[in-house]
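Translate structure to sequence.
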């Protein structure tokens, strides 16, 4: 099949490399506002360079991957849907939840599949955890702990435009908690601190946060996030039930050091970046998209899924700012 890619920055170029290695993908059509970015990707991974998104959509492609700036997501999604082309779009659907709801309403009933990029759904550890929960191996759940710790903060320009740590970082934890447990979040309470770079605080954001989520069956989820983890990129989940407890990310590349006498675990080189931690998950995610394009599977992460994680982020942001518990119903728009 023939796949278009809109946006050839860091993640777009990574997707181009991944797609170029998939058997189902015969050719790529690439476009970026900076022509040199598309040209460089084409030279490295093969494919044609188009001079605009419109040219990509008109180039006889079977599906399109949107890895452009967030502001461009709504327009590009709608243009692809109007052209009848299946869409993979990196999260978020839009910069604001209001825009995201508008996109959802605009594409409903069009019959064009849309997959939103939440790569943890394709990581083998998280898949195994979901399977164990669904099979009842843990019994009734009582506690979930989810962690995302970055080795260093993004640049000031990214922080200023990101919408805050809950919307650009924690949202991955929110999505994977919903997906693994099969439950919805009803209420949140969030806290945050600033002990690092001044530009994060100046942007009205926190560099380290914690959130307590209450799920609709009474399970408690504890989320920990930080822009600072000197030892590496740390993504983990613990799931505790009345019959068993399991963990994702408890492996030799875990960026954590034990001080217990005689303990040598973890013994590997720590993960240092999200592309390192989730290389195979990204491959599985884009393989899934080729199956969506081929019509052999439905979207494994819909716009509705992405918006549900977004409402949790909105509630946590409000909770942090107002120092109080917030229900999802309080922030949800219809």
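Result:
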């Amino acid at each position: 099949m023939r796949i278009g890619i809109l946006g050839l920055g860091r993640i777009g170029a990574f997707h181009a490399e991944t797609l170029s290695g998939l058997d189902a993908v015969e050719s790529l059509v690439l476009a970026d506002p900076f022509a040199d970015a598309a040209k460089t990707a084409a030279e490295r991974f093969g494919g044609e360079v188009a001079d605009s998104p419109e040219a990509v959509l008109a180039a006889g492609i079977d599906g399109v991957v949107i890895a452009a700036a967030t502001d461009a997501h709504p327009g590009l999604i709608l243009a692809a849907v109007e052209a009848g082309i299946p869409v993979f779009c990196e999260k978020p659907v839009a910069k604001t939840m209001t825009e995201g709801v508008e996109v959802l309403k605009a594409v409903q009933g069009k019959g064009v599949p849309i997959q939103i990029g939440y790569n943890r759904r394709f990581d083998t550890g998280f898949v195994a955890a979901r399977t164990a929960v669904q099979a009842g191996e843990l019994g009734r759940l009582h506690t979930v702990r989810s962690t995302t710790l970055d080795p260093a903060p993004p640049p000031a320009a990214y922080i200023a435009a990101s919408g805050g740590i809950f919307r650009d970082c924690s949202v991955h934890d929110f999505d994977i908690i919903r997906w693994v447990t099969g439950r919805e979040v009803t209420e949140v309470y969030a806290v945050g601190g600033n002990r690092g770079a001044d530009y994060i605080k100046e942007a009205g954001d926190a560099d380290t946060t914690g959130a307590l989520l209450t799920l609709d069956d009474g399970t408690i989820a504890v989320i920990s996030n930080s822009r600072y983890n000197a030892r590496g990129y740390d993504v983990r989940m613990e799931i505790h039930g009345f019959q068993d407890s399991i963990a994702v990310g408890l492996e030799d590349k875990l960026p954590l050091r034990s001080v217990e006498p005689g303990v040598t675990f973890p013994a590997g080189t720590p993960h240092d970046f999200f592309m390192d931690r989730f290389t195979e998950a990204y491959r599985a995610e884009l393989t899934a998209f080729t199956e969506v394009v081929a019509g052999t599977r439905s979207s494994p992460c819909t716009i509705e899924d992405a918006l549900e994680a977004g409402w949790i982020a909105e509630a946590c942001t409000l909770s942090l700012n107002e120092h109080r518990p917030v229900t999802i119903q309080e922030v949800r728009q219809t």
